[in-house]
Write a structure and sequence with these properties.
The complex is a heterodimer of chains A (571) and B (246).
Chain A (H helix, E strand, L loop, with lengths): L2 E2 L3 E6 L3 H12 L4 E4 L16 H6 L12 E4 L7 E2 L28 H4 L1 H9 L17 H15 L25 H12 L5 E2 L9 E2 L5 E2 L25 H7 L3 E4 L2 E9 L2 E9 L5 E11 L3 H10 L17 E4 L2 E9 L15 E4 L18 E6 L20 H9 L4 E8 L8 E9 L5 E6 L4 H20 L4 E4 L17 E3 L23 E3 L14 H21 L5
Parallel strand pairs in A: 1-12, 2-3, 2-12, 3-9, 4-19, 12-22
Antiparallel strand pairs in A: 4-5, 6-15, 7-8, 10-11, 11-12, 13-21, 14-17, 14-20, 15-16, 16-17, 18-19
Helix pairs in contact in A: 1-7, 1-11, 5-11
Chain B lengths: L1 H4 L8 H8 L2 E2 L2 E2 L2 H6 L27 H14 L9 H4 L1 H9 L2 H4 L24 H20 L8 H12 L10 H17 L11 H5 L32
Antiparallel strand pairs in B: 1-2
Classes of the chains: A alpha/beta (571), B mainly alpha (246).
């Protein structure tokens, strides 16, 4: 029998960006909030030895321990799903701050087109432009409606950037100026401008200068040390929940964080969530935490899994297309890249910041004409300078052996003379891409793992090929002596790293029959349960997701406060 | 580390970094790492004569002497000594791999190793039940067996070309093994060679930071604010050890 604790106003499951933002907004208004985090505590002091590529980037210091829980994967329903035994395609965060600690800080707003992709695509190109199996949906919210929340997130995090000429309207400028431009970025900018494209400096959560945010949190500027992605920031210069929203919530005295607390079920009576059941992973004790409002703010997989394990919502059925929990799992089509080798130039590639780079959106969203193309959407094109660490960056021109004397010569020659221009392809939803519970494999507590059914489609193959060739054109214009670029996307492979931009499964919308949550991320089926994160994306855009997760979190916080006041559906 | 930083004006120690940059907001030092360093004022390394210490790390935690020799020879072929600098053997790659196999990585400690095991599709990744240390045991033995079968000689006694031929057979799955994937083992050996060459010297490889020096990689530096927007600049490398000297 679980030990039952006194009831609180709100219990939050998972304290990353979404959980941290919601905790800060609710506790400011006086609500008593408990945050349950299954990982350990994290703080800036932990990163004394962070410049360690092996420990953090290759041994996954900050990631979830897969021996306790992983996902299973199959390409389609004909195959047996098998567990992802080792990390590959994506890296699941763990611990206080979640994936918000080890991110790069690339902070975008999605395009207005993204939010109304179905209706706008049909309007412009006709119904037949969308293949029958492609289940893309409008979000139930427009860019203009979400804009104020983007603005709040950017001011909280202190995003550094410059105006993107091809994006939606902004109500105010970025709170801090763009990061410095490296020689490689200048080369990209000049070349892209000659090609009549529209480059801009990437919006970054790595502060370009000291900044104090509206919550009174002060942070110092980025030192370009080159250790962001997969690492924590030793300066607190990279915005993460631990150095921004969590201390704000804690200062109110209304926020209690319990680490090492793994939520196993959301408890429900009738149409109301009554609290959660969790395991204290240090003692194994089962504990019940009753609450008036439950907020599920885990990573995509956990959000879907906990709903399914708790019998909340209707599981998605890919054969009938009915049900919503697990529906429209999408990803990021990240392989449409080109690599340029420069025989006579060296760049400071060892230096950088997670979100340092140049972007252009000429081939993103519907910024270009798709009438004669076999795909919709596209993706941003990026030249990033994240810091090329030596174990993971040993590119050699195609045809060079991958080991031995010739490999050594070429990899050393090009160690500082290789630039990558990449396409961050969007990922459309398809009827047979979904999440459900695995029938065979279990976690350390005996609960079923989440199962991914996903593969790349013609849409992805065509789009990534198109993006890769555009990337190659830019590198040629930049003067690369040799350019290799992706020719064939191939099948989706869970064993090679692509991105941790997994989305969907608890999607938002304006219609309860086709979505799981409303535009405040409130469950249609359970009024006092909010499910927040990239799990709400009906499909994924051609950008990194965190900016939109942040904006949706602020909107969800507003929704929770509305519900707290009035009850019922807040839309 | 005194030696290491000599004649290296760009390489900032943490203390100097804090002093020089005034890394503060509103008079307060920001960032826990820096904050924890501030109270210590001792400049330790100035008058100390560097003593050439024995490297106690170069002993075996897992390998048998034979396994160690095969690993040393094989990794040297993957990353050989040449006019650009030392190869895998000299930078200590075999020690690095030995030490890694003795720990979490060798035991697949943080990976999902629960049954049932099925042969999967390639896109589903590794599905074996063997741990990396088992795979190395088998793989190294099979390198030796294959060498005996083809050349009637110990792998370590083969010429460079013969060793390459043996490794190529593993890389191309031309060796008939039932227990492990020859190419899977070869790729593991290749990745481990790069790790041992380029990881921080604290792990037993990258001796003298020679791996980094060969590719002009500066290792762990506090800041690149002064050079980030400039032309390429060679900076003498620093290891994590340099952060312990304050």
């Amino acid at each position: 029998m679980a030990r039952k604790l006194p009831k609180v106003d709100v219990v939050i499951i998972g304290v990353g960006w979404a959980g941290g933002i919601i905790a800060s907004e609710l506790t400011k208004k006086g609500l008593k909030v408990v945050g349950l985090e299954r990982g350990k505590e994290r703080k800036t002091e932990d990163y004394f030895m962070v410049h360690d590529e092996l420990r953090y980037a290759l041994r996954y210091e900050m990631m979830q321990d897969l021996s306790k829980e992983t996902i299973t994967f199959r390409s389609n329903e004909k195959f047996r799903a098998l567990p992802m035994r080792q990390y590959g395609s994506f890296l699941i965060g763990d611990g206080l701050g979640g994936s918000g600690v080890h991110w790069n800080g690339q902070t975008f707003r999605f395009l207005p087109y993204d939010f109304q992709i179905r209706s706008q695509t049909i309007e412009k190109y006709g119904k037949n432009k969308i293949p029958a199996e492609m289940t893309i949906q409008d979000w139930g919210i427009t860019y203009d409606e979400l804009e104020p929340y983007y603005d709040t997130f950017e001011k909280m995090a202190g995003i550094s950037g410059e105006e993107n000429p091809l994006a939606g309207k902004r109500s105010s400028k970025y709170p801090t100026p763009p990061l410095k431009k490296t020689k490689a970025m200048e080369l990209f900018t000049d070349s892209a401008k000659r090609m009549k494209l529209h480059p801009y400096v990437q919006p970054a959560a790595n502060l370009s200068e000291s900044y104090s945010n509206p919550d009174g949190i002060s942070r110092a500027g980025c030192q370009y040390c080159g250790f962001c992605e997969r690492f924590g920031c030793e300066y607190g210069a990279k915005a993460d929940p631990v150095v921004t929203v969590i201390p704000v919530a804690q200062k109110t005295g209304n926020f209690e964080i319990r680490t090492h607390s793994n939520v196993r079920r959301i408890l429900k009576t009738g149409k109301k969530a009554t609290g959660v059941l969790y395991t204290d992973v240090t003692t194994g004790e089962e504990i019940e935490q009753p609450a008036d409002i439950v907020v599920l703010t885990g990573f995509v997989f956990n959000n879907v899994r906990l709903l399914l394990l708790s019998n909340i919502g209707t599981p998605y059925n890919p054969n009938t297309g009915t049900g919503s929990v697990g529906k429209n799992y999408a990803y990021q089509v990240r392989k449409g890249n080109a690599v340029g080798f420069f025989d006579k130039k060296e760049f400071n590639n060892f230096a950088g910041a997670g979100a340092l780079g140049m972007i252009l959106d000429d081939y993103n969203g519907d910024n270009f004409d798709h009438s004669k193309l076999n795909f919709i959407h596209g993706g941003m094109i990026i030249l990033g300078q994240t810091g090329q660490r030596p174990i993971q960056n040993n590119a050699v021109p195609k045809g060079t052996p991958t080991w031995g004397a010739d490999f050594k010569k070429a990899s050393l020659k090009y160690a500082n003379s290789t630039l990558t221009v990449g396409g961050e392809g969007s990922s459309m939803a398809f009827r047979h891409h979904f999440l459900d519970l695995d029938p065979t494999y279990k976690d350390a507590y005996g609960d079923p793992l989440i199962r991914i059914t996903f593969d790349f489609e013609d849409q992805d193959r065509e789009m990534s090929k198109y993006l890769a060739s555009k990337c190659a054109d830019i590198l040629k214009e930049m003067g690369a002596d040799h350019v290799d670029y992706m020719q064939d996307l191939g099948p989706y492979d869970v064993s090679t790293y692509q991105s941790t931009h997994n989305t969907g499964g608890v999607i938002m919308g304006s219609d309860p029959s086709t979505s799981a949550v409303n535009s405040y991320l409130q469950m249609w089926d359970v009024d006092n349960l909010f499910v927040v994160g990239a799990s709400a994306f009906p499909q994924n855009a051609g950008y990194n997701p965190t900016g939109t997760v942040g904006a949706l979190s602020y909107r969800a916080a507003e929704g929770i406060l509305k519900y707290h006041d009035k009850g019922g559906q807040v839309v | 580390m005194a030696e290491e930083n000599k004649g290296n004006p760009e390489s900032l120690s943490r203390r100097k970094f804090i002093r020089n940059t005034g890394f503060t907001v509103g008079g307060l030092a920001v960032g826990g790492v820096l904050g924890s360093l501030l109270p210590r004022t001792r400049e330790k390394d100035k008058n100390e004569t560097p003593v050439k210490a024995e490297n106690f790390n170069q002993a075996l935690m897992y390998f048998t002497p034979e396994q160690f020799r095969i690993t040393e020879a094989a990794t040297e072929r993957i990353f050989p000594k040449d006019e650009l600098g030392p190869g895998a053997k000299a930078v200590g790659v075999a020690f690095y791999i030995d030490h890694q196999l003795a720990g979490d990585w060798g035991f697949n400690a943080r990976e999902y190793m629960q049954a049932p095991f099925f042969k999967g599709e390639k896109v589903q990744g590794y599905q074996g039940r063997l741990k990396r240390r088992d795979i190395f045991d088998i793989g190294l033995r099979e390198i030796q067996n294959h060498s005996m079968a083809v050349y009637k000689k110990d792998f370590t006694k083969l010429t460079d070309e013969e060793q390459d031929a043996i490794l190529k057979d593993f890389e191309g799955d031309k060796v008939n093994l039932t227990t492990i994937s020859p190419s899977g083992f070869f790729q593991m050996l290749r990745s481990a060679t790069l790790e041992g060459t380029y990881s921080d010297p604290l792990y037993g490889g990258n001796k003298n930071m020679d791996g980094w020096k060969m590719r002009k990689y500066p290792g762990s530096q506090m800041a690149y604010t002064d050079i980030i927007d400039k032309d390429f600049k060679k900076i003498n490398p620093q290891s994590l050890k340099s952060h312990m000297n304050h």
